[in-house]
Design a protein that fits this description.
The chain is an alpha+beta fold. The protein folds into two domains: about 80 residues; about 45 residues, no CATH class. Helix content is about 60%, strand content about 15%. Strands 1-2-3-4 form a four-stranded antiparallel β-sheet. β2 and β3 form a beta hairpin. The protein starts with a helix and ends in a 5-residue tail after the last helix.
């Protein structure tokens, strides 16, 4: 009996992991895996259909909540990256040999800050950056 239960548990877990790859979010994956694990735990603890269903429900909710937190963190990271990219500019400074040096300038509050820490009230021009020592 225990061997049969172990095999069933392993089959269910393998299926859950396989189906979890098709979920669109961590919350969905968490609900799927949590529901499966909860159903197995409910069956093991109570040994009847009611316990299995209660375990599946509790596991699904817990898994969803856990996965949803991961989704929130990913969304915040994407937002921060987008904001950083939106506030980053590159000004090309012509070099004496005909090439260009790209100077990264980041808008922070009311200032534009160049790579060397110089602050400008407006996006600096090529001439301003050249005077500050960029390019060659």
């Amino acid at each position: 009996m225990k061997e049969k239960m172990f095999i069933c548990v392993m089959v269910v877990l393998i299926c859950l992991l396989g189906f979890g790859g098709g979920c669109k979010s961590d919350a969905q994956t968490g609900a799927l895996i949590g529901g499966g694990v909860g159903a197995i735990a409910g069956q093991a603890i109570g040994g009847d259909t009611k316990s299995t269903l209660i375990g599946a429900a509790i596991g699904s909710v817990g898994g969803y909540m856990f996965g949803n937190e991961g989704d929130k963190k990913e969304a915040e990271a994407r937002t921060q990256t987008a904001l950083q990219n939106a506030n980053t500019f590159h000004v090309n400074v012509a070099n004496s040999n005909g090439s260009f040096t790209a100077v990264r300038v980041v808008k922070s509050g009311n200032f534009y800050i160049a790579e060397g820490g110089e602050r400008y009230l407006m996006l600096p021009t090529e001439a301003q950056l050249k005077a500050a020592g960029y390019g060659f």
